[in-house]
Amino acid sequence: MIGEILTRALMRLLILSPWVISPPWWTPRTLYAFRPASAGPYPWRLEKDLVYDRRPEGPLRLDLYLPVKVGENLPAVLMIHGGGWVTGSKSSYRGLGRLLAGHGFAAAAFDYRLLTEAPWSAPLEDCLTALSWLRSEGKRWGLDSERITLLGDSAGAHLAAMLALEVFPSIPIRGVIAYYGPFLLTEPALPGWPRRCQEKLLGGPLEKPAVMERAKALSPVHLVSRTPPPFLLVHGELDSVVPFRSSELMAEALRTAGGEAQLVAVKGAEHGLFSLGRPSPSLIEIDRRTIAFLTTVTGLRNKDEEGKEQKKVEKESMGVK
């Protein structure tokens, strides 16, 4: 209980402080760190700052995390960073990119135009361009264009859901991993920075009828009209920036449409899965569930699984059960 109270208090201070726009040095390490206990069996390498598009605002770049000595036709994960559609960068996925590459997945983190640079729908257009680049240029890096999964956190989860619902099934998205996403924009966000981000996206306060209509058009909960790809939704139950209810309603909408939705409720965790206590499940367990979901939807088998299968075959050949 004390941990939950302290977690809420510190998160509230973060929301009301300039740290949200210019985070302190420890924030990326806390929220996006690589956890050695979650490491996979593969070494990895990074192809940094690949240009995937050029806009009047400047070139758009992408970082590609690749497993080493795995072979061709790698499943890929397109990672969309959060930041309220107004801040953030691809560098926030350094830890997660390493995690995914270590488990045999190619992971692409990219910068997109923020709402401070260009109006909506520029961020979503850049997400589609990055996806198209991954499908067309990925062959150079040994990627399988038919086995791509989307992943995003916070505003990035919103963009991942919007993109998947727009292009699937014409583009065979294998699944979506969405961490604490704002899927219902027809309800006002928390006053302060979250509210300002919402109004920046929608063009004003929800009290205006035209803004409310725009909010409905940009709410993934209201856009699930046909069978969607599988979703893994992860959300802290204490979240005061994007209420846990957002992912609950998204899971319900996906299942109603005939889709598969796994919802991981993280007890004791605020936005960003931040906690001063012991969240349940732990961050390591969430890493494991993320890898398990990706393995299932892409059909990937890693070294550990191959080794177990080989031992099983050898035992059976010797008549050992």
Helices and strands in order:
Elements: H1 2-16, H2 26-32, E1 44-55, E2 58-67, E3 74-80, H3 94-102, E4 106-110, H4 122-137, E5 143-153, H5 155-167, E6 173-179, H6 193-202, H7 209-217, E7 231-236, H8 245-256, E8 261-266, H9 283-298, H10 303-317
Parallel strand pairs: 3-4, 3-5, 5-6, 6-7, 7-8
Antiparallel strand pairs: 1-2, 2-4
How many individual helices?
10
Describe the sheet with the most strands.
Answer: 8 strands, mixed
What is the chain-wise order of helices and strands? HHEEEHEHEHEHHEHEHH
- The number of domains is 1
CATH topology: Rossmann fold
Determine the strand fraction and express it as a percent band. Answer: 15-25%
Poorly predicted regions: 16-31, 303-321
Protein architecture, described:
This protein is an alpha/beta fold and 321 residues long. The chain has a single domain (2-317), classed as Alpha/Beta hydrolase fold, catalytic domain (Rossmann fold, 3-Layer(aba) Sandwich). The chain contains ten helices and eight strands. It has an eight-stranded mixed sheet with strand order 1-2-4-3-5-6-7-8, with helices on both faces. α4 (122-137) crosses α5 (155-167). Mean pLDDT is 88; it is low at 16-31 and 303-321.
